Amino acid sequence: MNPRLGVARRPNPPRIPSSGTPAPPLFTFASMATYRIVRMYMHGGSRAVSGLSGLTLDEARAHCSNPETSSRTATSAAAKHRTRQRGPWFDAYTEEA
Predict the structure, then answer these.
(1) Cα separation of 48 and 93, whole Å?
(2) Helix (H, G, I), strand (E, B), or coil: what is residue 42?
């Protein structure tokens, strides 16, 4: 608002380059990276965790922060069984192509 006139100022229109085409947007959803969860095993190998792809970075970090996503801190029966079968493991995230 312009204090002298008591009216709101209009924002300046976007600049158009000399080529006549508008500049590309700074952010698009198509350029937003997505992540998938991968289970890594100490004795070799890894696999994608079913149903955990297309995640945002925050979602992937939240998943990997859960104590049930590492053989060292997991307490569930399924996690303990997995550790007995495959050895130490942990979940990690990687950017999808």
Answers:
(1) 9
(2) coil
Q: Model pTM?
A: 0.64
Length of the chain counted residue by residue: 97
- Could you report the per-residue pLDDT of 51-89, keeping only the tens digit for each? 899 999 999 999 999 999 999 999 999 999 999 999 999
> How far apart (Å, rounded) are the C-alpha atoms in residues 10 and 32?
31
**DSSP per residue, 32-80:** ---EEEEEEETTS-EEEPTT--SB-HHHHHHHHHSGGGBTTT--SHHHH
Burial class of residue 82 (count of CB atoms within 10 Å of its CB; 0-12, 13-18, 19+): middle
